[in-house]
TrEMBL record:
Transmembrane region(s): 6-27
Binding locations of Fe cation: 351, 354, 365, 368
Name of the protein in its database record: Lipopolysaccharide assembly protein B
Lineage, uppermost ranks: Bacteria, Pseudomonadati, Pseudomonadota, Betaproteobacteria, Burkholderiales
Family indicated by similarity: Belongs to the LapB family.
LapB rubredoxin metal binding domain ranges (all copies): 349-373
Xref: Pfam families: TPR_7, Zn_ribbon_LapB
Amino acid sequence: MEFDLSWIVLGLPVAFALGWLASRLDLRQLRQDSRRAPKAYFKGLNYLLNEQQDQAIDAFIEAVQNDPDTTELHFALGNLFRRRGEYNRAVRVHEHLLSRGDLSRGDRERAQHALALDFLKAGLLDRAEDALRRLEGTPFEAQARLALLAIYERSRDWPQATEIARRMQAAHQGDFGTRQAHYLCEQALAHTAHGELDAAQSLLLQAVTAAPQAGRARIELARLHQRRGDARAALRVLHELAGVAPAALPLAAPLLVEAAAATGQESEAHTLLTRQYQELPSLDLLDAIVALEGGGATPARDWYLRHLEREPSLVAATRWLAGETLSQPQAQPKVQRALEHASRPLTRYRCAACGFEARQHFWQCPGCQSWDSYPARRVEEL
């Protein structure tokens, strides 16, 4: 049988025409798709820049529907949902990303981090903890550890917080020695509340070692010694405090007076307080000095007058005036009450981070949760 070459000659133009037609159709479809997706994307971006989040979400949803494989659009959509407080929808977007088998390792880690943020913002701390722990060994590890630290602090899980802080210290992510000392002090206070004084003392000694220059551990240790009836040990620890963290001594001034009175070492305590007061005047130190003197060589009113000579103080003026006799004695109680009312806000402590004020000193601010943000000085002295 002979092969007819005429069929090949006739078939080649037909095949070429069909191929050209198919390529044109594919190209047209590709152009339509590429025009549709960017248009929706840029529309959403324009809405976002104009802070029209509802319209931006609708535009991004349209873009995602046109091109379901676009990961960046999914991330943008998930972040928008989170910012709007629609955490369930944000979680669904990021979980959908994680379920894709074609996702690159970098995008998978990014989606895992975004999912952890969704859970954190939603207040689902257990699920956030699990999601954050999956970020160990990724570029998001440092951020994940900080978030875990915040979770454990909020839930007062001090052992877990201590472990995370140690990891961050070992990874050179910052100095967490003082933070670890706070965690140990918190655990010690819990043991003290249950009468487990030996365990509390062991933790406080560890805290002193973890942060030798921090004041809290020594103050708590002195309180523990005083509670156990060992005033001499309490006084010894407070003398150490004055040497390593003198700025914190005003917080322990009343305890120092109590321990000195119990051991008969008022003179030594008076010398210590006076020396510290000369270097850094403080109303708490001044009150402790007056309490130790008890109307001795220098009357209390003279101490407050000396303080007024060094710096203006409505609190000191009010206490000085309490012993002064006015020309109209019947007006004395009213004037005294008015001054005490006016000076009371000045005796509070104020957080340097958020401005939250409180009558008592806090090592961790109840408002912003910052550590060591309360100076050991009253509002009037700042």
